Amino acid sequence: MEQILSGILEQAIAAGAAILLAAMGELMAERTGVLNLGVEGIMAMGAVSAIIAETFIPNPYFALLIAILIGLAMGVIYATTVVSCKANQTLSGLGMLFLGTGLARWIGAGYSGMPARAPFATIRIPILADIPLVGEALFNHTILVYIAYLVLPPLVTFMIYRTRHGMNMRAVGENPAAADACGVSVNRIRFMYTCVGSAFAAVGGCYLTMSFTPAWSDFTVVGQGWIAIALVIFASWRPWRVVGGALLFGGVTSLAFVAQVLAWKVPSEFLNMLPYLATLALMIIPLLKMLRSQRKLTTAPAALGLPYERS
Amino acid sequence: MKRSDRTTAGKRSFRLMRRAETKPLYEVICRIVSVLLALLVAGVVIKLIGMSPILMLQKALKSTLGSSYGFEQALVLATPLILCGLSVAVGLRMNIWNIGAEGQLFMGAWAATWVGLFVPGPTALILPLMFIAGALAGALWILIPALARAFLNVNEIITTLLLNFVAILFVNYFAIGPWRDSGVGILLATKRVPAELPTFGNSYVHYGILIAAAIALVLAFAIQRTKWGYEIRIIGRNRRAGRFAGMPVNRNILLVMLISGAIAGVAGMSELAGNVHRLSGTISNQYGYQGIIVAALSSGSPLVVLPVGFLLAILLNAGIVLQAQGISVNTMLAINGVILLFAAVGWVASQYRLVVTRDQPGDEMEEGGEGISMDEEGEGGSGRE
What we know:
The complex is a heterodimer of chains A (311) and B (385). Chain A has 311 residues and is mostly helical. Chain A has 12 helices and 2 strands; from the N terminus they run ααααβαβααααααα. Chain A has helices at residues 2-31, 39-56, 60-84, 89-107, 135-138, 143-162, 164-174, 176-181, 186-212, 224-234, 239-262, 268-293; strands spanning 122-124, 140-142. Chain A has a two-stranded antiparallel sheet with strand order 1-2. A 3-stranded antiparallel sheet of chain B has the order 1-2-3.
């Protein structure tokens, strides 16, 4: 039993990390008012570029670097479209989704099923990992997991809420005209964070192929990007809530693992549906409660999805 | 002529002005140009990785429009594309994005298979039953996102999309599990459904294309000529205005989404009964997703969906035919993504015009955005004037 609990926790953390990385990037982009529906496609591109890079130089950090560069490139395409050209974000986001998914599956066809030769090694944190019951589950992960859970959330929180730059970011997302009047370059900040968000999504993809799975197939990225977008909404655009949400999704995903261990008689297809159904439930149920209490809790950045133009 | 004007007026002496009203013609030109540009980009990429785009184009054209078989194949592929395009288009009229057509298609096919396999009766009776079952399953599959959108304002893009994954897993379970045909040579699919849509003569083209055309006509009539259609159009343009005018906004959102789901479900039924005949996890060439592109390029107009669907079917067929050359359905998906990006930029571009305030006063040219969109509009503009 102990082992099972520890296993659930470990799986939950590992499975949640990819979503967390992508969601944190999306959160920053959305805070500046840019909605990127292409996260899923960008994750796929990050995942596939990492595994291809790794066949040239079998080093996970090189793969990560390439994934980040590809993510930035995808971000530049998207930002040019929606920030510079002020195109419709829904349409362009779906364009990025198709471009990323299609391209990744096309160029990744020859690498399908091949395990990563040099995935990220797990780092066992000496004393902490010896804590009974949870130590092994919490402190025996790859570097990207630690970055996702321990480094990013405080960093992003601090930046968004405690620095002038973060304040500008939020201003751009809430009231771009006012930010513009104060001398903040609205489109520069939006362009930058669209690219940053896209790079984070690619890192999430890289984590899947270089650490979590670790291999590429057409089904490596199945919905994690969309769950990440939903998670940002569920977390009302707050970094620490995203962490909680990612753990929750990781936990739901790990149910498939539990079922395997306990030899439940539930078909795997139904277990694999759970993360999507859970996401759906989490998008709807909090609002149902709100309906009853008559409270209004939409904390979305006011200018989310709206291109900015000086008038 | 215009082009040379622009090159001489290269000292940034032009201004962008937003048009008071966008003429539909400019939008059409922008759509066409965006498709051509996307194909051009794809051609350059194919050239860069060392293949010959010209040869591919020749082969694709020959195998699609050059032979009667290819033409039939394109029509067969066009059927689900048009149906999914209609499904998304009807939502677009109200600014509702049904990204879940893929899942609804799968569920429609599932329900049709269920009727086809387990309900005994003559084909003439079973086919309409399969149709109804497909439509109902598609509508049911979008019910929760629709209710959430109408009454809780939950983003329908994410909710409808998430259910795609669920639907494919669901169908996979039945195709590999309880309904699996254990016959030799059948890979992970159900038994053949006996009731089949009739075909035209000896061709492969089945009556599904008629269903698609009929639905397009009915939708076009309903949207343009009825009171309900008027409400839909008003709410689509301005939701608040609709509400103030006393139109039942929430009910119409719900209704439109259910119709959208039902049409995608019919696409699944038509695919199953007309084309694949066995349910499996691979019945769809991402028709649901491509339907989004069909609808977006048609601006949500049902009658325009018909030619656009056929056009994308030719593209898709090219992807399937060129498989030996290393092209795949996924390549086509990527190209579709580029088309969407260009179309999105082109749509913005069509709202602007360029006023050149140099040499010749009163010389106007359409222009928009930056970089890519300039070229696009340059071509669009010269084609127009």
